[in-house]
Amino acid sequence: MVRKIIVVASCIRRKEDAPWEDLETKAAFQTKLAKKIACISPFANFVYVATDLTGSGLRSLDYFERTKAEYGKQFRPYLEKKMQDVSEKNPTFGSESLLDLSDRPRFVFKEEPLKDKLNVVLPYWGILVLFNVLLIILFIMINS
Prior knowledge:
It contains four helices and no strands. By secondary structure, it is an all-alpha fold.
């Protein structure tokens, strides 16, 4: 009985999540496009470099969401198996019953490695260097 409820609920959830997944895909595309357009400004490049290296930008939020989704992929099968085992042992188990989850997989967040952050930040850093070189050349041309 409980297993059937879980299966039906997961099917309903998948149908309800489809529009959200489409919305998230479109929002991610628009965010990437806006970020690329903003790179025209050296200040935006500086902000992207600073926030990505310190772990406080959009990239860090995306990394956390991916890590959380991976944990969800571990936790859902565990929970379904646990509920199935308990319902087999206890036929009166229902949605109001307590379930011992003390042996559940734990969520452990590890910051993204600095090497990966540097690989992502390098193009923005290059644009900043280019802006500085152009500014120096312009300054030299004006003073000569």
